[in-house]
Amino acid sequence: MSKDIYKIAGVQMDVQLGDVGLNLNNMLKAMRETEARQADLVVFPECALTGYCFESREEALPFAQSKDGAAVQAFASLCREQNQYAVFGFLETVGDKLFNSCALVGPQGLVGVYRKVHLPYLGIDRFVDQGTEGWNVFDINGLRIGIHICYDGSFPEASRVMALAGADLVLLPTNWPPGADTFAKYLPNARALENAIYFFCVDRIGQERGFKFIGYSRLCDTNGNPIADAPHANPEILVGEIDVRKARQKRIVRVPGKHVIDRFADRRPEYYGPVCEPHGLKREI
Questions:
Q1: Domain boundaries along the sequence of the chain
Q2: 9: which of 39, 60, 152, 180 fits an S-S bond (Cβ 3.0–4.6 Å)?
Q3: CB-based burial of residue 110 (10 Å sphere; 0-12 exposed, 13-18 middle, 19+ buried)?
Q4: Given 46, 92, 208, 236, the catalytic residue
Q5: Cα atoms in the 13 Å half-sphere on the side-chain side of 78
Q6: 150 carries an active-site annotation
Q7: Which residue spans within 20-142 are E strands per DSSP?
Q8: Which numeric CATH code is attached to 5-250?
Q9: 33 is catalytic
Q10: Is pTM beyond 0.90 here?
Q11: Could you report the average pLDDT of every consecutive run of 10 residues in the chain (285 residues)?
Q12: Residue 280 confidence (pLDDT)
């Protein structure tokens, strides 16, 4: 049933590389904890099902699943039981393709899948295929959500596309390694503020093959203020409330007749052409 206020949970958790059974059990356990906190939507990190720091495509493939696989089915069963939705990161096989993906699952089963577009030279992203479907907005009982993954958040165009498509909430499941500290501290706030949306980064913790993941998950409101925060590398379930009416009010009157902000109506896309020009650069490693 559509409503104005939704409760959103994010699970900042450790993940064991290649132990799909353990990771899935830990995620389902966390889902049960969020039911008691009345969360409508529960968000897990990037590659939460599999881990991230694989050394080859061949090493990762045995742990990947299709969008109709056992993990999605397990989440769908629990979502039906608890009347919740969940987003979780997994490695997805589609024919001979391998994607770094996130599944959105609800009581009705699989709602949709997002496949990572921007791929850094790091971990499994060195070996997966690039997502080519862009960014969609999914409606779950009146809450409109957009999903992107980790490095995608470094490109403001991704959030803007989803916001223009009507997203109330943009999710960023992530695996932030050392070096991402500045992004974690400042960019979620900026993405929320510049689009007048709620923005939720959900990171993992723990270590894999020399990489220590930093945590620092955060939910920001439409003015860029944190409303749920985990500024550390410990396990935590964050819960915050969002009001879709605020995300849909893009015209902000601060002083009537003297100070009005509307970052959508005030855009000048006729000058943004260079942003969409192919860069012609070859990625070096």
A1: 5-250
A2: 39
A3: middle
A4: 46
A5: 23
A6: yes
A7: 41-43, 85-94, 97-106, 109-115, 137-140
A8: 3.60.110.10
A9: no
A10: yes
A11: 92 98 98 96 98 98 98 98 98 98 98 98 97 97 98 97 98 96 96 98 97 97 97 97 97 94 93 88 71
A12: 75
